[in-house]
Amino acid sequence: MTATTAPPRMTARGFRTLTATQARLLLRAPAALVWLAFPLLLLVVFANIPGFRTADDDLGGRSVLDVYVPTIAAMVPLFLGCTALPVTMADHREKGFLRRLSVSPVPAAGMLAALLAVIAALAAAGVAVITVVGSLVYHVKAPASPGAVVASFLLGTTAVLAVGLVAAALARTSSAASGMGVPMMVLNFFFSGLYLPLAELPHSVQEIGQYVPFGAVMAAWDGRGALWAHLAVLAAYTVLGSLLAARLFRWE
Amino acid sequence: MAVIEVEHLHKSYGGDIAVDDVSFTVGEGEIFGILGPNGAGKTTTVECLSGLRPADRGRLRVLGLDPRTERDAVRRVLGVQLQESGLPDKLRVREALDLFASFHPDPADIPALLDRLGLAAKAAAPYRTLSGGQKQRLAIALAVVGRPRVVVLDELTTGLDPHARHATWELVEQIRAEGVTVVLVTHFMAEAERLCDRVALIDAGRVVALDTPAGLARRAGQQQRMRFRPSAPLDEDTLRALPEVTAVTWRGPQLEVTGTGDLVVAVTSLLARRQVIAADLRVDQATLDDAFIALTGREHPQPGPAGTR
C-alpha cells in the first residue's frame, strides 16, 4: 500500500522510542524469551552426556559437543527470527496497534526496522551467552576455520531474520504467523543437522539443503562447496527478504 | 478556507460499493458530523480522508493536501482515532503517549494532556487494565498528542456508558475550543445534536442531507405533537377548528394533538377559555431522530456492535 506513495519520513527520536517500546514489550512477555533459555539448557544437557566431551578421531579430534555448539547457537536466531519476530508483529496487527500507528507519521520500513533491531540484539545476546558458556565453562574448541563460521553465521542470521520479516509483514494474526514461521524454523533445523546427521541424507536432498539458510551455513562450516556461493545464497535471502517485507507490509 | 474538501468520493471493495458519491467541505474550527446508519459508508469516507485507503474516484483534500500522494504531510496535521485499533496489552498509558508524541516535532505537553483527559492516575496502568471509557479517552489523547490542526474521531462513544459518553463529549468541545477542526463520525443522534455545527447525513454511500442539526430536524417536518389528559370532557371539533391543528386522536385517556406553528399556545389558550386543565402535558418537537427516519426512510439504528464500513 505504501509502495504507491512517497515513503514517509520518520524522526530519529520516533525511531528510538519505537525501538525502546518494542524492546520493553518483548521483555514483558517472557514466553517469547523461553527460546533464549532453551538452547542454553540444551548446551548444559549435552555437556553432561558422558562421552560428548571426549575427543573423537572420527570428528577430527573434536568432541561431539565441539561440533554441536555452533548448531545450538544457531537455534537462537532461528527461534527469534522465525517465531518471535513474525508473531510479535502479527500480534500488533491483530490488536489494531499497527492500524493506529498507520495514521501516524511512521513508515512501514521504520516499523519493521525497530522490531528487527530488538530481535537482532536479543539474538546477538543469546549467541554470545552460548559461545561464552561453551568456551569458558565447557572449554569447547574454536571451529577449524573461524572466519568462515563467523561470516556464514552472521549472514545466516540476517537471512532468517529477513525471511521472518516477510512473515511479519504479511501474517494477519499471531497464529497465522506461527503457521508461517514454525515450518520455516523446522526446515532450517532439519538442514542444520539438528535432527539427523546431514551426511546420512541422500545427495540430492543435501544439495537442496544448501539453498535453505541454515543448510547453507552448515555447508559453509563443513567446507562443502565454495564458501562464496553459500555466502551469496545467504546475502540474497537477506536483501530480497528485507525488500519484499518493506514492500508487502500490511498495516491491517 | 475549507480545511477539508471531499468531492464526489467513490470507493468500492470488490463489487460492493461502500461509498457511492459523497461530497462535503469542513470549515476551520468546525465540529462536522458524519451521521448515518451502520454500513452507510461513514468509516470508509474517513479512512479515505486519512489516507488509509485510496479513493477509486473523487478529490480529497486536507488543508489543501492530498491524503494519498502527500500522505506524510497529511499525517503531520491530521490526528485520527479509528475503530478497531488498539494497543498492546502490556503497553502503559504514559508509554503509549510518549511513543506517539515522539513521531511529531512539537507534541503536546503529556502530563497536562493526561490530566485533562482524567488519565493522570492511570499513567502507569497497562492498556489491558483500562476500562472502555479510559481506552477511548486514551485513543483521543493519541489522536491529539501531535497537536494536529484537524482530528477525525470515528464512533467515539460506541460502547460507552452515559457518564463516560458525556465526559467524552466535553473533551471534544475542549479540543474544538483550542481551534482544532473536528470531524466526528457517529450513529448517535444525540451526539451529533449536542456537538456538531453541521451534519452530513449519509445513507447507502450518498449524502442525503447536509445541514445544521436544527436545520435537519426542521426538514423532517414542522410537525409538533402534544399529548395531555383533559381534566374535563372536551369537544375535539373545537380543537380541530384551530388553524394550527392538523390532527386530533385519542390515545386511551390521552388526547394527542399534532400541528404546526404556535400549536402549543393555540391549544393551551383554548383549554384555558374552556377551563380545562391539560394534565400530564407533553410536547414533542421533531428531533434529529425524526430527521434521520424521514430522510433515510428507516428506523435509526440502536446502539449496536461497532464495525461499520
TrEMBL record, chain A:
Q: Where is the ABC-2 type transporter transmembrane domain?
A: 62-219
Q: Which InterPro entries match?
A: ABC2_TM, Nod_factor_ABC_transporter
Q: Which residues cross the membrane?
A: 25-47, 67-87, 108-138, 150-170, 177-196, 227-249
What keyword terms does UniProt attach to this protein? Membrane, Transmembrane, Transmembrane helix
Q: Which Pfam families match?
A: ABC2_membrane_3
Q: Where in the cell is it found?
A: Membrane
Q: Quote a single Gene Ontology cellular component term.
A: membrane
Q: Which PANTHER family match?
A: NODULATION PROTEIN J
The name this protein carries in UniProt is ABC-2 type transport system permease protein
From TrEMBL, chain B:
Q: Which Gene3D superfamilies match?
A: P-loop containing nucleotide triphosphate hydrolases
A GO MF annotation of the entry reads:
ABC-type xenobiotic transporter activity
Please cite one Gene Ontology biological process associated with this protein.
response to antibiotic
**Top-level enzyme category:** translocase
Q: Which Pfam families match?
A: ABC_tran
Family, as annotated: Belongs to the ABC transporter superfamily. Drug exporter-1 (DrugE1) (TC 3.A.1.105) family.
- The name on file for this protein is ABC-type xenobiotic transporter
Q: Which gene encodes it?
A: nodI
